[in-house]
Amino acid sequence: MKRVGFIGLGIMGKPMAGNILKAGFPLTVFNRTRSKMEELVRGGAKPAGSPKEVASASDVVVTMVSDSQAVKEVVLGEGGIIEGAAAGSSVIDMSTISPEVTRGVASELAEKGINLLDAPVSGGQTGARAGTLSIMVGGERKAFEECLPVFEAMGKKIVHVGPSGDGQTVKLCNQVICALNILAVSEGILLASRAGVDTEKMLEAVGAGSAASWMLANVGPKMVSRDFEPGFMVWLQQKDLSLVLDLAKSLNLPLPGTSLVNQLFRSGEARGLREKGTQSLITSLEMLAAWEVKPNG
Amino acid sequence: MKRVGFIGLGIMGKPMAGNILKAGFPLTVFNRTRSKMEELVRGGAKPAGSPKEVASASDVVVTMVSDSQAVKEVVLGEGGIIEGAAAGSSVIDMSTISPEVTRGVASELAEKGINLLDAPVSGGQTGARAGTLSIMVGGERKAFEECLPVFEAMGKKIVHVGPSGDGQTVKLCNQVICALNILAVSEGILLASRAGVDTEKMLEAVGAGSAASWMLANVGPKMVSRDFEPGFMVWLQQKDLSLVLDLAKSLNLPLPGTSLVNQLFRSGEARGLREKGTQSLITSLEMLAAWEVKPNG
To answer: Are B288 and A254 an interchain contact pair (Cβ–Cβ within 8 Å)?
Structure first.
């Protein structure tokens, strides 16, 4: 059984690392804020003092950190994974970062014979806890197959989508679709409310037909009941949409819908909603309309 | 068992009337193009010479016609339903029309003691054939309950959403959500294609997570395989979005996303795609990008 390392024990990383431990893999962990390691260490994980130390003790190192810069530091920086990892070992980066940065890191690791798989996830904290994440993986197929048991400990739908960087690109496509689906639900609910229709009944009536979506089912009721606590935070969605729009710019690709949603989320940021859930998008439309959806029931 | 009448045997109406017949209701039918009645008449339906004649022979009359004007003519015009229907009978209008027109027709019928239920549907021709339509019903609850067995012959998810006109309003909300979900899938696929990622793998990887939608599952593969044959035609979607934007205008409600999709569909109309399926929305974005998604596999 492969020895696994895990770096980045945040809101997503910690339950994911927990599932790797539960699946029986020997696990070494590292987190900058050391206290976040305690629970996993009590569960049997070994604590390490640096990403390098994690890599020295592991065949596969998973990283789950906040952005492109953090991935570069943890993998290539001083005391980073590259200093401890053996040739033939694999790094799985499950953060959502730039596809271009991913390919750069992959080629630096490749020079030392280390594989990089980019493997961002969808499914949020709930999916991370339940081990039901969708995982979209870029990189060499051989490395993917070797690491599959590790992925299976964390996710349900695991797809090798192409060479290095493609996992990140697919994740960005995922974020485009999610963001526009949230706009769809927002405009539908706002129209119903403004026209005096029961918004809960509307969601019930349309949710079984061609308007059905994960967002309608999961985020629609929160909009209606005015519950803006985060599943996924506005600033994280915006970070991902920035990656989307940077990529699209580099490709000369206009994405008018995504761009609109990005601007509407910015209105949320301007109104102090950075750390609210993405369902708060509806409030940007409410501002435009000088109308607020009333909570039903 | 109630005697049912059915007026408007188009692409949706004919299979819906067929399901009413199959459920054992005595059925009288009328269609302007008489040849469209033949199959149902061979199946046991009685042909009528006018909407008035249908109404005289029925306790419940269903209408499934093209637009607000057609509903007014068939219900209130010369030889219309209002001339034949008895007090206490019900008219079920399953067309998608203006909520305001619906309320006007309802109040004229009410003067003669005739109920109007507005009951537009979602689920397309497939749902009409299979009897699995979603039906969103506005009007008086008592009339709704009396007509429920007729609805159950045609649909699966049947929700009484509120008073007269609310069925139409909910259908318009449904169309807002559908249209924006199509934009979501279009932008996601275009980004994947332009970035050189396998579009089928992208759809597979994101379709099980928070990007999941009926549109992604049903319309995404058609976009990728360049199949633009209609499930639902662009001009019908545009007719519905016009109703949405008229309603929103009357409510002083800005709907920036819906408005954008409406304009992008207009580009399709300008390029001769009126009678293609709504999945052809992606070609409007392709025009903007001077890029065409390649068929995979």
So the answer is: yes
